[in-house]
Design goal:
Length: 176
């Protein structure tokens, strides 16, 4: 009985704090973190953005709900971010020959996983909703040297260059 009460308590704390760690990490860094990833020095795993054929289908009805959307635009061959109600290219044209097509039938699903809220007006595979918590990207030391087989649309934080690192299928682009 004590184990059940303890499990319910832990689950409730995780739900209400809406802090999640991924990649074998046992705890979240900081009190204002909504999603945190493995931060060991040997980490070479980043986030792989969704590869989308038609970017208009990736948008919610209200443009303001799209700001902060990141994806790999297969039509343009670029990683893009939706900012101030318009798409911004984060990379040049890359090589999408290694992009694996998504063959799943998710047309009936209009929403992915939401962390930080029960609902969201944003459309995405993973939606982070919080007014006081942020995403901590996977941290990788010199990803252009250490990630042996990067995938188009890979996103991480370069701990040596102190920059956002994005792979477009050909080269790494860095944003400070």
């Amino acid at each position: 009985m004590k184990k059940i009460i303890f499990a319910i308590g832990i689950t409730a704390c995780a739900y209400f704090s809406a802090q999640v760690s991924i990649g074998g990490k046992q705890s979240v860094e900081g009190t204002h973190t909504i999603l945190d990833f493995n931060s060991t020095a040997s980490n070479t795993n980043g986030i792989i953005l969704p590869a989308v054929t038609d970017i208009s289908n990736a948008l919610a009805i209200s443009p303001v709900n799209n700001n902060g959307t990141f994806l790999y635009d297969k039509g343009a061959g670029k990683v893009r971010m939706y900012e101030n109600n318009t798409w911004v290219d984060l990379t040049d044209v890359g090589d999408q020959s290694s992009v694996i097509p998504n063959l799943s039938d998710d047309s009936s699903q209009n929403q992915g996983v939401i962390i930080g809220s029960e609902t969201s007006d944003a459309k995405g595979v993973l939606v982070l909703e919080s007014s006081d918590k942020a995403l901590i990207l996977p941290r990788i030391s010199s990803p252009h040297l250490t990630v042996k087989s990067p995938y188009p649309g890979m996103l991480c934080y370069d701990t040596v260059g102190l920059a956002l690192a994005i792979f477009d299928g050909k080269v790494w682009s860095y944003w400070k």
